[in-house]
Amino acid sequence: MSNKTRNLVDTITGEMYDMSEYSLRSKKQDEAYKSIQFKQQDNRHFSFADMENLKIVISNLKAVYCGYLLILQCYMEYETGRLTISRKEMLKVLGISKATFQRFWTAMIIHEIINEDNGEFYISPYFHFRRHPNHNRVIKMFTTPLKHLKDVLKPSELGFLYKLLPYVHYDTNMICANPFTEPENIQFLNKTHIAILVGMDEKKTSKQLDRLRKVGVIAETIRQDDKRDRIFTLNPYVFYRKRGKPDDTLRGLFASTPYCK
């Protein structure tokens, strides 16, 4: 039997690589590998939202349209941002009429949130993307829980939730005015603050928050220093900013919800 080893030669540099120490992957295999690595960071499918840029979407879209967008971003292709379902399938996924969809779609195109290229549709990576981020002002949105919530919450309720995403604190997942500060400096947002934030009266805001609490998307905590105030924390199994799994406190807070399964 021959003892010769197979070598790979770089035709530009002339450098040789021992094939017993290296392996070859096609571009297609390499993309599949990167996709798997991306998913395994948290062992679940997720996409990212740019928290600062989302404010542009929120300021230009009504809540129900924000809810539709939150659903559609679940169908983005890894890296490209291409929507993997047709416009006809979008109507079915969103559960809306052609007329309602057309108004929503017009808003997406006008504000360049969704773009068309050669008959394919792409969500702008300026707002939502599925690749490794190059900054920390992002929040992860987990696909399976959001698809579940689509059948539990109204689009306007999902849109209300969407409007909270730019205000999620990195370490605690709490809704606050300064999501990039240290935990000891958090300025919590209570019901009154959130009402102003989402542009809704306080009574309706209270009902929306109660609804989200009942379905396990948020937790409500009484502040020790002022029991009239409430602190709101987003479920990290639905939305989360940090890498890996939530800490013990967050896991315990949402352990009874169906999204951590």
Structural class: alpha+beta
**N-to-C SSE series?**
EEHEHHHHEEEEHHHHEEEH
* Biggest β-sheet strands, sense, barrel: 4 strands, antiparallel
Mean pLDDT across the residues is 87
Number of strands: 10
Low-confidence stretches: 31-42
Which term fits the overall shape?
globular
What would you report as the Rg, rounded to the nearest angstrom? 22 Å
Order of neighbouring strands in the sheet with most strands = 6-3-7-10
What is the helix tally? 10
Termini, distance in Å?
54 Å
Helix content: 25-40%
How large a portion of the residues is in β-strands, by DSSP E?
A: 5-15%
What does this structure look like?
The chain has 261 residues and is an alpha+beta fold. 38% of the residues lie in helices and 15% in strands. The chain is built from ten helices and ten strands. The strands form four sheets. It has a four-stranded antiparallel β-sheet with strand order 6-3-7-10. β1 (7-9) and β2 (16-18) form a beta hairpin.
Describe the SSE topology.
Elements: E1 7-9, E2 16-18, H1 27-40, E3 46-50, H2 51-60, H3 63-72, H4 87-94, H5 98-110, E4 114-117, E5 120-123, E6 128-129, E7 138-142, H6 143-150, H7 155-162, H8 191-198, H9 202-214, E8 218-222, E9 230-234, E10 239-240, H10 248-253
Antiparallel strand pairs: 1-2, 3-6, 3-7, 4-5, 7-10, 8-9
Helix pairs in contact: 3-7, 8-9
